[in-house]
Amino acid sequence: MASSLLKKLNAIAPAKPAAPSKPVRSGLIVRRHSVPAEQALLAMDGARFHALGFQTESARDCLFLDTETTGLSRGAGTVAFLVGLGYLDGNEFIVEQYLMRDYPDEIDLLNAVCSAAQRFRAIVTFNGANFDLLLLNSRLTMHRMRGEMPALENVDLLLPARKLWKLRLKSCRLANLEEHILGQPRTDDLPGSEVPGRYFEYLKTGNESLLTDVLEHNREDVISLGKLMTVLAEAYYKPEEICEQIDLFSAGRVFESRGEKEQAKRLYTMASAPRPLTSISALHAERFAGHANRHLYQLYRREGNWPEAVRILETMVMRRQLGAYPHVELAKYAEHKQRNLPEALLHAEKALKLANDEEKAAIQKRCDRIIRKLR
Q1: Quick one: which of 374, 317, 327 has its CA closest to 355?
Q2: For residue range 140-195, what is the model confidence (pLDDT) as tens digits?
Q3: How far does CA 261 lie from the centroid of its chain?
Q4: Sheet strand arrangement including 80-89
Q5: What is the pLDDT at residue 5?
Q6: How many whole angstroms separate alpha carbon 155 and alpha carbon 64?
Q7: DSSP 264-326
Q8: Across-strand partners of 32?
Q9: What does pTM read for this prediction?
Q10: Cystine design at 222: which of 24, 84, 200, 322 (Cβ 3.0–4.6 Å)?
Q11: Are 53 and 255 contacting, i.e. CB atoms less than 8 angstroms apart?
Q12: Which helix or strand (DSSP H or E) is residue 36 part of?
């Protein structure tokens, strides 16, 4: 009887748990790479950093950082499982990568990053202010390690890159800048959207070969930070050497916003210079030449330099730039500065013919007022 009962109990007992499909592992995977440092990076000085809007004095003071994460949110469940760090050592650019074998290794990873950061004054990122550094800081807070990370200047390259190249390139993703600015498109690179999936699959299987492409993707990102920083710094340090007409206009807006009006005028003048219209891109650039002339006119107008301001407007009329705008401004000048109502009416009527639907009501109102004054 007892034997029969024992057999029945064994039959309904839960099965023993299966052996894990991955080996037990702990500790960080640490990789170290070395490549010859580019001369432009070695020559980065305080003047070039200041041109970018940062206070750092030398590239040797910089720690370049890029993370690979388990997701794109900054919620409590998102972890930076791989951190790539780059820095100059003599004439070499060193890339050190710290990768968690499993979640318990996160404290070791954070300790490694904080320890490395102690040796530098600035940390160079691409969108780090909005993602990488915020995520790392939140993880440090969760582990009660917030005070371990030194307060470094964040040289975030995304904002100056957008200000200079967004009008022309539309997308300022790092991969797009590598292709169109650095002239170094990646081949056979792992898309960033696939990185979290690779790591989760690795956690299930323990197959470290799944992470080979992730490590290479991260290493290329860190190296690109150094290259991109030097190209950006040179463009801001010597903006007159920018070749693309649209980028010259973008640079003019940057310097105008900084209050460097004379430099802005020079860049707007270069951006507005006539060029052969031999391609679609040249036609696109010509539209921004009109915007450059508009900004140039507004700078002269604010200074009260009306001869130069009127000359710019007349140039815009001759080159048929921005439709009704230069005629409207010439009508204002003739009406309020010259007290020449017939001339003002002439330009207002020309503006009305060129105006779009949104502009017509205001221009018609201007015409009617000038006519009343003439009567």
Answers
A1: 327
A2: 999 999 889 999 999 999 999 999 999 999 999 999 999 999 999 988 888 888 99
A3: 24
A4: 28-36, 92-100, 80-89, 62-69, 122-125, 153-156
A5: 52
A6: 9
A7: HHHHHHHHHS-----SHHHHHHHHHHHHHHHHHHHHHHHHT-HHHHHHHHHHHHHTT-STTHH
A8: 96
A9: 0.86
A10: 84
A11: no
A12: strand 28-36
**What amino acid occupies position 82?**
L
The amino acid at 372: R
**Measured between alpha carbons, how far is 303 from 254 in angstroms, rounded to an integer?**
19
Beta strand 153-156 with 62-69 is unpaired
Percent of the residues in the chain that have a pLDDT greater than 70, as a whole number? 91
Structure tokens, 339 = 């007290």
For residue 238, give the 3-state DSSP assignment: coil
255-259 long-range Cβ contacts below 8 angstroms, 24+ apart: 256/295, 256/299
Distances (CA, A) of 93 to 184, 219, 227: 18, 11, 11
The burial of 243, by beta-carbon neighbours within 10 Å (0-12 exposed, 13-18 middle, 19 or more buried), is given as: exposed
**Sign of the Cα pseudo-torsion (268, 273, 274, 279, in order):** negative
Residue type, 107: I
pLDDT tens digits, 296-336: 999 999 999 999 999 999 999 999 999 999 999 999 999 99
Q: What is the pLDDT of residues 173-182, one digit of tens each?
A: 999 999 999 9
The CA distance from 18 to 185, in Å, is: 46
Grouping H, G, I as helix, E, B as strand and the rest as coil, residue 123 is strand
Full DSSP string of 170-223: S---HHHHHHHTSS---SSPPPGGGHHHHHHHHHHH--GGGGHHHHHHHHHHHH
DSSP states of 49-110 as a string?
Answer: HHHHT----BGGGEEEEEEEES-SS-STT--EEEEEEEEEETTEEEEEEEEESSGGGHHHHH
